[in-house]
Amino acid sequence: MRDNNEASWTQVVDNLEFMADASDLPILLDGDTGYGNFNNVRRLVKKLEQRGIAGVCIEDKQFPKTNSFINGEAQPLADIDEFCGKIKAGKDSQSDPNFSIVARVEALIAGWGMEEALKRAEAYRQAGADAILIHSKLSKPDEILTFAREWAARGPLVIVPTKYYSTPTDVFRQAGISTVIWANHLIRGAVSAMQAIAKEIHDSETLVNVEDRIAAVNEIFRLQDADEYSAAENIYLSAANEKRSAVVLAASRGAGLEAVTADRPKVMLPVAGKPLLSHLVEAFKKERINDITVVGGYRADAIEKGGIRLVVN
Question: Catalytic residue at 24?
Fold first, then answer.
């Protein structure tokens, strides 16, 4: 979706809940302008705390906002007092003393200059902001370093070096920057990779050339913690639902069946229009036996593998 508040704050919070379930790392929400006035910020903070989110960053632009890199100079900034009211409302609403509200200053992006940026940052600090995020669209860190020097460590400073990404991180450390957010490079990288993979599949009409460039299925299962679910099944599912397994011994050609098993084992002989093995698999599945191992030997290559696991004797 576009960076124009097209997603409602409740949709954002719903996604955050899944993220908090999946990770123990602290999550800082990019809360745009706070999704409205002081009252929206109050409710947002409460809902974020309920989901274990560590903090929210709000920016001093007007709602609905537009991405800072889209004609940023023409974007109006919020009134200082009104934005300070949002910060105070958020801090007064939090119950977790460790919940953080980061105030993002857009004055440099909007072309208002260094003096205005410092003025706003100080006002937001006095309103209770736990940190200041100073933003710049220049390809060099000059503005940021000047701001950091003038700011003189009055409070934690956060930056987003989307444009000045080539600056060594040690430069930021020496300037007293507390936190660096590489905001969208992961998303942009993922989009680029998905587009490349999709084009390759479309053009080649095969997966042969992409399998070694994508995550293994087992890696997806690991990220989903599939092993934990399997362990929980053993604890909580009743005996009636206990998984059962079947083993089909199908390694022989079949004594006396040589005339019809030259190219297949006896388990693949047709009975009533389909292989004997298919009848067996259907019978197992009707009894909720889905873990089926077939032991092949003679002409194991001719055994149809649908719905079974084939091992060769």
Answer: no
